[in-house]
Amino acid sequence: MRRYVRLIACVLLSCCAMVGGQQGPAAEIIPFEAFAHVRVEAVLDAVQSTGDWDAAKVAAQQLFDQAVLYTPADRPAALREADFALRLVAQLRTLRGDHRTAMLRFLRANPDVARDILFLMPLHDDGGAALAVLDRLREARPTLVEPYASLAAAISVVHRRPLERRLNENTAAAIDPLDIFDFYVANEKRMLFGIRAMPPELLAYVVDVTGSIDELKWALANYQGSRNVGQRFFDVVYDYNSFRYGTEKQLTLHGFSLPNMLRFGGVCVDQAYFAAEVGKAIGVPTAIAFGESANSAHAWVGYLESDGASVRWNFEAGRYEDYVDVRGNVIDPITRRHIADSSVSLTAEIERTSAVGRWNAAALSDAANRLMAMKADRRPTPPDRETIAADSLLPLPRNADVTAELGLLDAALHQSAACSAAWAAVRDLAVGSKLSPQERDHWLNVLLNFGGARYPDFTYSIVAPIVAGVADPTRQNQLWQRLFTVFSTRLNLAASIRMHQAELLMANGQANAALNCYLEIIHRYSNSGPFMIAALQSADRIMTDSGNSAMALQLYARTWQGIEPPDEMAHQFMAESNWYRVGMLYAAKLRAAGVAAQAAMVEARLRTD
Q1: DSSP per residue over 308-376, as a string?
Q2: Is 211 left (phi over 0), alpha (psi -120 to 50) or beta?
Q3: Whole-Å CA distances, 167 to 73, 252, 285, 458
Q4: What whole-number distance in Å separates Cα of residue 540 and Cα of residue 559?
Q5: Residue ranges of the domains in the chain?
Q6: What is the per-residue pLDDT across 172-202, written as a single tens digit (0 to 9) for each?
Q7: CA distance 562 to 582
Q8: Cβ(434)–Cβ(371) under 8 Å?
Q9: Strand ranges inside 408-501, DSSP E
Q10: Could you give the strand order of the β-sheet that contains 311-314, starting from the edge strand earlier in sequence?
């Protein structure tokens, strides 16, 4: 304690130098990392005693800006602590006045909880709501929050606003966050992956549970220790009467619950929900994925599995053959936005990352974002050089340029490859034409080597906008062709690449070459996914605009005849299929061409098959 008091005194004394034209007393020289630590404590001490949150926000922002400029990317401790202080002050300012100081004291006394929750929150999101949930947990379970820091953080962030799942005609709503916390604490030893050691980024896919306490207890009693969560998908018998004839499900008639799913069956979304909720009840991160094939929409389940040495996400259970090459969409429990199931798979990288590494990655990503804003803002006052050890600083402050930003992002990804914000920042720089061709190609190589095979959907979501932003059409087309080679076995991605190439060719006056791209999609992927519908309509426009309406009509006829009609199903499901949708387009085309009788025959088949 005496050491920190002495350091604080040194910082304050250095600020008094040259006052009134007189040289102040010489200050003890300390490293920048120690300087940042002392300043963080001073800012938080001040706001704790005075309650001046506006002043604390200004001071924390200045310290963070100094850290952005002076912290070496390979030694980010000072940056991490400055970012923590800024996040802490910014989020606590949104709480009610009488709760701010008490929560500040609690978070300072429980650093693991504080850092887990603040670095888990998306930057600029409603962290005050998450801290309000944590405040409830703190008051109700004061001795348990710190030992279960990751759990408390995950629950507070995931349940900062009400959580519901709409499952066709049924809705499942989450129970009280305190009850969720109590369930996992009471049953920690029965959880497959444990609770305390699991990072909050993965625990978010456990605690986003929407079953009742009775359902969770039932699932735990019946499935504790089950490693093959995917098999639970098939425990629920499929309700073919509802699928084929559109009748109300027995599950809905008797009450939507996990035991009733097992008793009465359901459709795919019920099967996926059952498996996901059972997984969450036994401590396994799970997610429901939704996708659309050539025939209909479908739901399946993803879950974390372990081979003893490492963990990975498995999104194969219930993902039938028609959906192997279809992107699965998952609702991110933290942001509530739709993300690719491959992006969820990226979170498995967190298992190889320490807590400090996760926090460092978030802080470095924040620093990269802030660095570019400094171009427009006034640069912060540098720390007093009489107070800072010379060998603890970069020779010069970090420049506010793209090279420095890329250095911070690269450092963030070396701390944690699961830092999706850093990958997205690289994408945004490239899309904004801020990267040189060499930098762009370097990062394309990094992305494809890292995730081209392991996380194809996530990787494609990052690299596709980068390639689309290349100004030179010849080079852009070459890059699309490279991506086609990398992702050729993923039919939905390959089709998307061909669509991009066709649009590029059209924009450069090469309609015939674009038409060939569309025809390839129609020929290769007519039974693979809904993406061929757009290709068919685009090919129609090119043919019609060039005076070949008869050829366009023949294209519709050949395409429809080449699509496999779906198996027997209710009309609302049939209407989602490629066969039905292309048939309707074909019938409309026939009517426009004056062939009403043939159009009626097509429509009659669509109604009866």
Answers
A1: SS-EEEE--TT--GGGTTSPPEEE-TTT--EEEHHHHHGGGGGGGS-HHHHHHHHHHHHHHHHHHHTTT
A2: beta
A3: 46, 11, 19, 26
A4: 12
A5: 1-29, 30-158, 164-352, 548-609
A6: 999 999 999 999 999 999 999 999 999 999 9
A7: 11
A8: no
A9: none
A10: 311-314, 297-306, 286-292, 329-331, 338-340
User: What span, in angstroms and rounded, lies between the C-alpha atoms of 74 and 263?
Assistant: 57
- Are 167 and 313 contacting, i.e. CB atoms less than 8 angstroms apart? no
Across 468-491, average pLDDT: 94
- The answer to whether 172 touches 272, Cβ cutoff 8 Å, is no
Q: Which of 433, 467, 426, 431 is nearest to 450 (CA)?
A: 426
Q: Which of 546, 588, 580, 585 minimizes the C-alpha distance to 563?
A: 580
The pair of structure tokens assigned to 226 is 């089950």
- Among left, alpha and beta (phi > 0; psi -120 to 50; other), residue 29 is beta
As a whole number, mean pLDDT of residues 553-581 equals 80
Residue 445: its H or E element? helix 437-451
Residues in the chain, overall count? 609
Q: Determine if residue 262 is left, alpha or beta; phi over 0 gives left, psi from -120 to 50 gives alpha, anything else beta.
A: alpha
pLDDT tens profile 377-390: 666 666 765 566 65
Residue 286 phi/psi, 5° resolution?
A: -140, 165
Which pairs from 372-378 meet CB under 8 Å and 24+ separation? 372/400, 372/402, 372/405, 374/65, 374/68, 374/69, 374/400, 375/400
User: Residue 238 burial by CB count (10 A; 0-12/13-18/19+): exposed, middle or buried?
Assistant: middle
Q: What is the pLDDT of residues 506-562, one digit of tens each?
A: 999 999 999 999 999 999 887 766 778 889 999 999 999 999 999 999 999 999 998
Q: Are 561 and 594 in contact (CB under 8 A)?
A: no
Query: 164-352 has which fold?
Result: C8orf32 fold (3.10.620)
> Is the distance from CB of 152 to CB of 139 less than 8 angstroms?
no
